[in-house]
Amino acid sequence: MENIGKVSHWVFHLGDTRLVVNSTTLMMTWVVIGLVLAFALIATRGRAMVPGPWQQLAEFLVQWFRELVRDALGEAYEERYFTLICGMFIFLLLCNWVGVLPGLEEPTKDINTTLGLGIMGFIIAHGTAIKVKGLKQYLKEYFEPMFFLMPLNVVGEVAKVISISFRLFGNIIGGSIIIVVVTHLVYGLLLPPFLYGFFGLFVGTVQAFVFTMLTLVYISVQIR
Amino acid sequence: MEVTDWVKVAAFVGAGLSMGLGAFGPGLGEGYVASKAAEGMGRQPGVSNDLLRTMLVGQAVAESTGIYALVVALLLLFQDFSAASFIDIPAFLAAGLCMGLGAMGPGIGEGIVAGAACEAIARNPETSPVVIRTMLVGQAVAESTGIYSLVVALLMIFVV
Amino acid sequence: MAVEISGADIVRAAAMLGAGIAMGIGAFGPGLGEGIVAGKACEAIGRNPREAGLLTRTMLVGQAVAESTGIYSLVVALLLIFVV
Prior knowledge:
The complex is a heterotrimer of chains A (224), B (160) and C (84). Chain A is mainly α and 224 residues long. Chain A has one domain. Chain A has helices spanning 23-44, 53-73, 75-97, 111-133, 135-140, 150-186, 191-223; strands at residues 9-14, 17-22. Chain A has a two-stranded antiparallel ribbon. Chain A is globular. In chain A, 31% of the residues are buried. The longest helix of chain B has 41 residues, at 3-43. Chain B is elongated and about 65 Å long. Chain C is mainly α and 84 residues long. Chain C has a single domain (10-82), classed as Up-down Bundle (F1FO ATP Synthase). Chains B and C meet through helix 1, helix 4 and helix 5 of B and helix 1 and helix 2 of C.
């Protein structure tokens, strides 16, 4: 109960600057990266016309996301953004699922992970907008429909980053807190496996999908 | 009465507020989902499997703010009261109020989303993949203010 | 043990209560409103699935605007907790 909300730190001193690294998050992120790489290796090794189960899973994911990206962005941008969207989904899915295994924790339980991904999506969406529309048109859209609405438009854009990252963080940490509290109450007999199933697998899948879809939609809003 | 007693009073009232208000919204919303699903099944019994699945997924997502209210209520109930100080009194009360009201609105809203999704699937069953996708995204966005409430409540319990 | 409660403590207590009320009620409205938006979008997609992309984009833009008041509540609550 006492370690809820505690984050383990590594502190480095570089001259006057103090560098704080969230050690658990960092290590768990590397674990997830290892899992993604392992999945990629297993799924692509020994490819065949009649696919094995891993290849089938990978093909299903790739095809599904290719269609989603084509629906949202159109043929012209499909190739460029499909890898980002599909990779983001697989990474987030494994991030949210990895907490189910004993001894591991979700990297998405740390606000820094989700905020980093949210800011990355923000930069990609706005970079695309400037590239597609040109800087002048991009800036002009902040003053539409009326010039004095500019502050509202800016707040709206910043709110997207905050809401997308807080949503993922809040869902995952809410699940992990309730698991800790209930385990504390019933000594881990019956309820926790069910709770891990609901919060880790179901909520984790939904939230990974929602995060990916919203990043995709934010890009598509910018280029249309 | 000592400060610790007052902190306990505040924490228990806060837990009650959190769970009471936080149960109301999701309960109402989930009931709305079920009513729409029942309506759709009455009109189109052939798609009842689709409708049942959509209803259960929609309700499970609509319930999440209610679960956050439960999280906050449990945390308030099983606090370590020995280190409590004066400022914990308003903080615990406010945490309960914040999470309770913050669970109520998103709970009703997400219920409306899932209810409308059930209606749409009953009318046009082939669209169910697109409708379920839109439903999940829409519910997640409607939930974000509930998440802000959770974050503020946790800050009040742990940080202040 | 008698505890001295000074004026500053009362101010801080009021700030806490204010933060809770701000975020609580401020989450209620946007949550309800955004739910109605998404519900109507689902209904419209059920009626006209070909416009699903357009409807999803409109829904998210509308929800983002509806959510801005929720973000103001969050900002005010955080200010009340940490700054005041």
